Amino acid sequence: NRLEKAEEYLKIYIARFPSELGARKLLANILLKSGRYQDCIKILSPVVKQDQNSPDILSLLGRAYIGLGQHDQALSMLTKAVELDGNVGNKTELALSQIGVGNKGLAIELL
Q1: How far apart are CA 43 and CA 91, in angstroms?
Q2: pTM
Q3: Which of 92, 57, 51 minimizes the C-alpha distance to 77?
Q4: What are phi and psi of 71, to 5 degrees?
Q5: Which residues contact 102 (CB under 8 A, 6 or more apart)?
Q6: Which residues contact 71 (CB under 8 A, 6 or more apart)?
Q7: Nearest-angstrom CA–CA distance, 100 and 47
Q8: What is the enclosing helix (H) or strand (E) of 29?
Q9: Residue 102 has what DSSP assignment?
Q10: From CA 101, how far away is CA 76, in angstroms rounded?
Q11: pLDDT digit string, tens, across residues 72-92
């Protein structure tokens, strides 16, 4: 499987170059597509601790938290991502997390 091979290569690359953000984002996307949300969080957590202003990282983490049903965490990550860049995709994910925590009115406003 190509995704498995890509994951294998990215893990090796990240082990050699742990601060490489692009490789971590690619691996996080693969893990999200595979439904491995906890692994995605594990890959991205060290990065977000260093740089809390990366909308891409915050968005990926938000999507992982949605996948785990941790809507409060997702809401926190996605709110910050939207504040930083206003991306329409992030707004949609934010609306979904608002629904998850019971704020249907806010969700509709975001959409």
Answers
A1: 23
A2: 0.82
A3: 57
A4: -70, -30
A5: none
A6: 65, 97, 100, 101
A7: 26
A8: helix 21-33
A9: T
A10: 11
A11: 898 889 888 888 887 657 777
